[in-house]
Model the fold of this input.
Amino acid sequence: MSGAVYENPDLKRERSQCLFDKEEITNLIDGGKEKTKERRDLEEFIVCDEDLKDSVPIEYLSHADKYSAELRKACLLFKKLSNPSNGPAEVSTVALLSTGAGAITLKEGNPLALHYIMFLPSLMSMCTPEQQEKWLPKATSLQMIGTYAQTEMGHGTFLRGLETTATYDPTTKEFILESPSITAYKWWPGGLGQTTNYAIVMAQLFTHEKCEGIHPFLVQLRDEETHEPLPGISVGEIGPKLGFNTVNNGYLGFEKVRIPRDHLLMKHSQVLEDGTYIKPASTKLGYGAMVFVRVLVVRDVAVQLRKAVTIATRYSCVRHQSELKPGDPEPQILDYVAQQNKLFPPLAATFGFHFAANYVWDLYNSAREGIGKGDLHLMPDLHGLSCALKALSSSEASNFVEVLRQSCGGHGYMVCSNFPRIYSLVTAAETYEGENTVLWLQVAKYLIKTRMDKSGGKSVAYLIDSNLMNNKIVDLNNDSITNLFQRVAAGYVDLAIKKLEGYNRQGMAPHDAWNHSAIHLIKGAQAHARYVVADCFVRSIKEGKFSDPVRLILNQLCELLLTYWLVEHSGDFFMFADLSANQLFKLQSKYMELLGTIRTYAVNLVDSFDIRDEALDSVLGCWDGNAYQRLFDEASKSPLNKTSVHRESFEKYLKPLMKSNL
Ligand SMILES: CCCCCCCCCC/C=C\CCC/C=C/C(=O)SCCNC(=O)CCNC(=O)[C@H](O)C(C)(C)COP(=O)(O)OP(=O)(O)OC[C@H]1O[C@@H](n2cnc3c(N)ncnc32)[C@H](O)[C@@H]1OP(=O)(O)O
Ligand SMILES: Cc1cc2nc3c(=O)[nH]c(=O)nc-3n(C[C@H](O)[C@H](O)[C@H](O)COP(=O)(O)OP(=O)(O)OC[C@H]3O[C@@H](n4cnc5c(N)ncnc54)[C@H](O)[C@@H]3O)c2cc1C
Done:
């Protein structure tokens, strides 16, 4: 696999006992044999290209030099791959973004990411054919480099509260953009700092002195030749963050900036020359770019989690610590049940999120196809599902990654373990593209509406089943546990409805009642999201074509994840699903048994994720298991180790202190 000569003997032993076809799992994750080949070709191309390597480890560079180093590689990468004779013919842009193959070379974040993830998709989904004809060629050839500028310093979640205005002036047939206060400054858009020359700006549209709500506008920010900001535009970078430090997140303010009328993206709503406003079929059509990224995040988070699990599992195989049996040599830490409890639920979750990501991606495509024909009926279900899965996958993955870091002890705290970076990426997904709490409340709103109105999409259809709470569950297996999650979700929804009605009877205003019910509402939404993942997992195993060994492994992982969630939230199941203490004891025993079973193939399973060393980027998780030598090699790269004494600081600070006789 890595071509390395050395292979740690513990890993070698595990690998010699593999009882399933690893390639089958690799193909499953990639989406088929062809996709595996495409990915491997692309990774090979990136790894072998000397120009895409860093001359100095990026960790030791200044903030500005890091940005410059990543931008150099990002530009080079897109330039090289735009010419198929340079590399693999089939290159999906998403594969180059975030944790895809592009992460091999762009570790701290791609300054061009927002151009591809949100700017181009916005042009494609919100422009008229004429607008597309004018702008898409320039945007795809990167003459126009754009971002998605929505969030403001004072307003992120509450879009109706955005302050930036775009006021139509029928005399010149222009919109005038204005940031009325410091809190109205756009704050956060990726690439906005120094990279982009255009942006899709979300602003409150005013025409005939009436506010028509937020709308997307294409705004030129910088001169196409000199890259200098245009008059009235104030733009810059927001500074260092927990992660994504080379994504170049920026700020943007407008002072009476005029743009032509047809820079309003007019596919869904229009302003005519005389200022007449034409409404969209739904005001939420303008939120499409956010929905797209929420859908992508579920897949992306699964990629990150696979990396973290691979690192922790391989390290747990080579790390020996303490005493399991008195007098025996130190065992592999992978043999401690407490360690397995840290590793295997996230291992199982990578598959659950993978299947759920496929499901929501298919729904996204069906909904987009419908919207193209004027059929909006899938929009509420897509909104509910994308919010639920984005929030669940990012929050669970953040918690899991932290536990996986802890599972590697002190070495997991090193930057060269790659845990800090992985954590910074997954936790960011809890906030961007809709803060998770807020998304949970959106899901809850959909669930309540479905339960009360007896209408809703496929993902919530179970809430309309009048027998849901009466079904007696005798056997606890993957199917019946999935049903229990439905009952918990419905139980919380009913409880929240009762609370809302009670508050209403007490004379409380609906919005206050909603606020007072938030905790139950969120718990219901979370149980619903777990149900969706469980259902996708169970159905994908039933419907997929697998060899017997792989089917067995997938069933065991599914059972482990569902049991783990049930045990973790057992109180909910006592309250809403008639779970008995006896059933819980049995489930706990089953869980322990599954940990032991998964232990036998865990190393081979993470190998089958097929994450090459350059993508894993972790001294602890390398394929050869040579963790200690690699730790040492990394330490030797520290600039402080270049000389035996750090002369400058010693002479300036330490020596005077030592001589001062305090
Ligand atoms: C493996 C390779 C993968 C590679 C790809 C990698 C991608 C990921 C990595 C990228 C890395 C970094 C990129 C980061 C980029 C980040 C960008 C951003 O963060 S952009 C800014 C995002 N901002 C938000 O998300 C704001 C959140 N707020 C909202 O969405 C809204 O304000 C909301 C929904 C909270 C409320 O909206 P509003 O106030 O207008 O609505 P109401 O609450 O009154 O609800 C009204 C009604 O509308 C329904 N609704 C709301 N939204 C939608 C929607 N999108 N679609 C359909 N329906 C919607 C809502 O349910 C209500 O319905 P009703 O029937 O009336 O109850
Ligand atoms: C890495 C990163 C990249 C980003 N990239 C972009 C980008 O490219 N373009 C862009 O426009 N934006 C971007 N953003 C901004 C991002 O979309 C917002 O930060 C996000 O939508 C949350 O909004 P906020 O920061 O205003 O948080 P707030 O909404 O102020 O949240 C603060 C707290 O208030 C709580 N809260 C808010 N409303 C409610 C409510 N109704 N009920 C209960 N609790 C509530 C939240 O749960 C949270 O705990 C990015 C952010 C990050 C971190």
